[in-house]
Amino acid sequence: MDEIEERRHVVLCNLAAHAGPARGRLCLSLENAARLARLAPEVIAVIENGSGGTTSLAVLTRVALFLGLTELGMPRPRPSGME
Fold it and tell me: Helix or strand or coil: residue 78?
């Protein structure tokens, strides 16, 4: 159980740093991102602030993938030739 909690903490910290800019690159408002991800806007706002203490690992991973980030909430590397 500790391993899952540790991973959730890592994903939450990464999303706190990268979710807002990723949403901005997609040109999505908080409300539109929440609607498309089928989450309440408050959930995304809490994740972006890094204070999602009760948010499950499954929801954090879903938000990360929805925003085009890796499962750990990190930006994906640019394809070669686009660097």
Answer: coil
Q: Which of 33, 10, 9 is nearest to 21 (CA)?
A: 33
The CA–CA distances, whole Å, from 37 to 4, 12, 67, 79, 82 equal 23, 17, 9, 25, 28
In 3D, which of 26, 52, 24 has the Cα closest to residue 40?
52
pTM of the entire predicted model: 0.88
The 10s digit of each residue's pLDDT in 51-81 is: 877 899 999 999 999 999 999 999 998 877 7
Burial (CB count <10 Å: 0-12, 13-18, 19+), residue 22: buried
How many CA atoms are closer than 13 Å to the CA of 35, on its beta-carbon side? 5
Q: Which residues contact 39 (CB under 8 A, 6 or more apart)?
A: 59, 63
Question: Token digits for 64?
Answer: 């990360």
